[in-house]
Amino acid sequence: MYHERRDALDQRWQLLADAANVELLRLPNNAAAALSLLKAIPVQGLIFSGGNTLTSLGGDAPERDETEQALLTLAMKQHMPVLGVCRGMQFIQHYFGQTLIPVTGHVSQQITISAGSEIRQVNSYHQWGSYNCPAPLIVTAKAADGVVKACRHDTLPLFGIMWHPERMSAFDPRDLQLIKGFSQK
């Protein structure tokens, strides 16, 4: 029996990128190849998308964890913007030492979050989360049950969100602005 490993990206990411007027370069889940591409092709930021579970939580894509580890390390050295979406935010939290725990009520749900004085509805598709973030990460949005839904680094252009802007039937202008902002740093 042939065991084939595949990487996949939701095709709506291209539609979201088009709506935000940014170009996407899809990187392979191979650390050496991804780093080589970044040396050859200038990029203005990275998006760590959703999908897969971290291997530390039982996932089966160690090459993705290794690639994102290498990319995040490079991005921080170069002050390159990074946006982590769902699993991508979990990776950023894990990188900085956050222990992720099972959370309930966040799979295939619409969740109300508060980000300072702003209240908004976002989609939610995750079973792992946290109720806080370790320094240097700062919590910027939470769900009513206290689950962290967004965080940022205190000095570097690293931001994480626990919703999927690409899965919205109509893209939210705030998400488009977030993506545009990260691509213009």
TrEMBL record:
GO molecular function, one term: hydrolase activity, acting on carbon-nitrogen (but not peptide) bonds, in linear amides
Pfam family, one: GATase
GO cellular component, one term: cytosol
Superkingdom of the organism of origin: Bacteria
Domain Glutamine amidotransferase: 21-169
Coiled-coil regions listed: none
PANTHER family the record matches: GLUTAMINE AMIDOTRANSFERASE PB2B2.05-RELATED
Full protein name: Glutamine amidotransferase domain-containing protein
Origin organism lineage: Bacteria, Pseudomonadati, Pseudomonadota, Gammaproteobacteria, Chromatiales
